Amino acid sequence: MSDTTTERATAQVEPREQAERAGQADQQNPGKRKLMLTLLAAAVVASSVAYGAYYFTVGRFHQSTDDAYVSGNLVQLTPQVTGTVVAVNADDTQIVKQGDPVVTLDGADAKVALLSAEATLGRTVRQVSGMYVNNDFYAANIAQRESDLARANDDLKRREAVASTGAVSGEDIAHARDSVSSAEAALEAARQQAEANHALTDRTTIAEHPDVQAAASKLRDAYLSYARNTLPAPVTGYVAQRSVQVGQRVAPGTPLMAIVPLDGVWVDANFKEGQLRHMRIGQPVTLTADVYGSSVKYHGKVVGFSAGTGAAFDVLPAQNATGNWIKVVQRLPVRVQLDQHELEAHPLRIGLSMQVDVNTQDESGTQLAAATNTSYRTDVFAQYGAAADAEIAQIIAQNTPLGRSAAVGAPQKTVSRRDAERNAG
């Protein structure tokens, strides 16, 4: 019991002795402590001055965020006709060139319809050509009827001239008059037939005749249905989200895969409301990607601001007119265009994280973009229409009578892409 009491007393004495020794040491070195405090205060003041100078000269002109991601176009490849997939020529991660055949559908039924439309157009051209030939036939018929009428008139005049001598009977004169009337009626009928035929052919050509145009429209529709069994790549890019399989029955509008043109990506940086006060279109931007690290820097510029925050465009936007309201700082997407050369040297993928720093010193720009038309287009499908027109011109030229193509303005003979492929095969 006495030993325990002694230990407690010793433990209480030791801290008191240590404090006394420290106090004696401080009393022995008052100058050293004062120097240390002075140096600490000087360091704090110097740091504050340096930060203040940096902020007022550089820092206040920069707004940064790590809530930024790479975005780009996802070009969907969808069929325009119903069919069964017989070939898929690209897979995920592979690159395809604009116009390359990516997916092929079974075109047997469409080919049958195309051949039928070709035959119909050829038959229509020959029938219409016959109308133009009939113009010459009816002109010759009119000339013949005019000759018959002139002969009948001459016969009537000769008979009437000798009627007083009794050389001809009254009956012969009556028959002559009937012959004249019959010839006049035949001539009028011939003229009516010619006018009716001219009504079908005047002010038009074989190629522009309504019957030929109607047949050509059906051929064009059949040709497009046949050509659309081959799905070309609308743009050059990398294949992603491929879902189509060989043997699959697809309908128009079914997404088969996406093609991503990585040479046209951009960055959507989500800045807080307070950071947008001095931000303008055209301001320079410095970016780094997590995938490459801080050693690789991208340079770009602000090209636009979103028309609303992400919360405003939700499927079910927040309704703040409720009793339980809590203010949440909103973020607005800011689009940043990247330097194309830097993007080629260090390509990015959609969805990658970025660090974005915007220099807001130059406020001469605007916050609302000017009215410009930024369009994305492809001409791979326009080739189908050009090939269909070439096919129509070829069939018209082949079925137009020789010597009448130039006379009626029919197109000269051309070879369509479909025939070239068929001959090559």
Topology readout:
Elements (H helix, E strand, L loop, with lengths): L1 H27 L1 H28 L4 E10 L3 E3 L5 E6 L6 E2 L4 E5 L2 H54 L8 H32 L8 H18 L2 E3 L4 E4 L8 E2 L6 E4 L5 E7 L11 E6 L3 E13 L25 E8 L1 H6 L7 E7 L22 H18 L5 H4 L8 H8 L1
Antiparallel strand pairs: 1-10, 1-14, 2-9, 3-5, 3-8, 4-7, 5-6, 7-9, 10-13, 11-12, 11-14, 12-13
Helix pairs in contact: 3-4, 3-5, 3-7, 5-7
Verbal overview:
This protein is an alpha+beta fold and 425 residues long. Helix content is 46%, strand content 19%. It has three domains: 75-108 and 229-260, OB fold (Dihydrolipoamide Acetyltransferase, E2P); 109-228 and 385-424, no CATH class; 262-313 and 329-359, Efflux pump adaptor protein, beta barrel domain (Elongation Factor Tu (Ef-tu), domain 3, Beta Barrel). The protein has nine helices and 14 strands. Strands 1-10-13-12-11-14 form a six-stranded antiparallel beta barrel. It has a four-stranded antiparallel sheet with strand order 2-9-7-4, with no helix packed on it. Strands 6-5-3-8 form a four-stranded antiparallel sheet, with no helix packed on it. Strand 11 (284-289) and strand 12 (293-305) form a beta hairpin. It is a single-pass membrane protein. InterPro entries: EmrA/FarA_HH, MFP. It holds the Pfam family HH_EMRA.
